[in-house]
Design a protein that fits this description.
Blueprint (H helix, E strand, L loop, with lengths): L4 E4 L9 H9 L9 E5 L8 H17 L3 E4 L5 H4 L2 H8 L3 E4 L4 H8 L3 H11 L3 E5 L1 H4 L4 E3 L8 E3 L8 E3 L2 H7 L2 H8 L7 E4 L3 E5 L5 E5 L3 E4 L4 E4 L4 E2 L4
């Protein structure tokens, strides 16, 4: 993954996130060509057509306002994730954007698929990746099932050095305060969990700096310590 990455705690396709998405688009080197954006509602694949249609419509409207050539990639199950037509569209994209939903379903649908291979091809030539909530969680080493007792973990794509990513972090601490306790209990040494507040993003590259953008904070949570970073601050993601 050579391109820019944005990990969003919430707020995909909303006006509050326009500065973040403009940053992603501005980092592309397109020689005056319109950026090609693909919006994938895959994480909402079990929520029904109305939810999927809403995410696609929001993505189209949002990126059209930003001057992009944007398409909704309607991948909601494994068969669609292996459709070569969708894979070709993803491989040719300049920004691959995953909206939120169920992170376990998103990972299980994409793992080993033609769509995920195509996303890797896009990143390999410098395309950007944006993942909101579930779309951010699948890049960590594990996806925590926050709905399960004990918060079991499923191995994920492991692109980030974080053990897991917890989006909606400010709300999650109020809704499920034991999540942080459970996550910390599993950590050892320099292992860490990444927490991202709502309407907040961590933007950077795997081999470079990461910066907080948005109204909230980003947290690096270790077993016995926690560091918080606000808008504009650099986060030492590489451990």
């Amino acid at each position: 993954m050579n391109g820019q990455i944005a990990l969003l705690g919430s707020g995909e396709y909303l006006p509050v996130m326009e500065p973040i998405d403009r940053t992603l688009l501005d980092c592309l080197h397109l020689n005056g060509r319109k950026p090609r954006v693909v919006c994938l509602p895959t994480a909402a694949g079990t929520e029904g057509d109305a939810s999927v249609d809403r995410w696609i419509s929001m993505g189209l409207s949002h990126f059209q306002r930003l001057g992009a050539d944007v398409n909704g990639v309607r991948i909601t199950n494994r068969d669609e994730a292996d459709d070569p037509l969708w894979a070709e569209m993803i491989a040719e994209a300049d920004l691959v954007y995953f909206s939120g939903g169920n992170p376990l379903y998103l990972y299980q649908t994409l793992a080993g698929s033609k769509a995920w291979d195509a996303a890797g091809q896009a990143w390999g030539r410098g395309a950007a990746y944006a993942g909101c909530s579930a779309g951010a969680m699948i890049l960590a080493r594990y996806v925590p099932d926050i709905r399960s007792i004990g918060m079991k973990q499923i191995p994920a794509f492991g692109k980030l050095p974080a053990e897991s990513v917890i989006p909606h972090f400010d709300r999650m601490k109020l809704w499920r305060p034991m999540i942080l306790t459970t996550a910390r209990r599993r950590l050892s040494g320099d292992q860490f969990v990444l927490g991202i507040d709502e309407e907040t993003a961590l933007v950077g590259r795997l081999d470079g700096e990461w910066q907080v953008m948005g109204r909230g904070k980003v947290y690096i949570i270790k077993k016995r310590e926690e560091s918080a970073f606000s808008d504009g601050q650099i986060v030492p993601l590489a451990q």
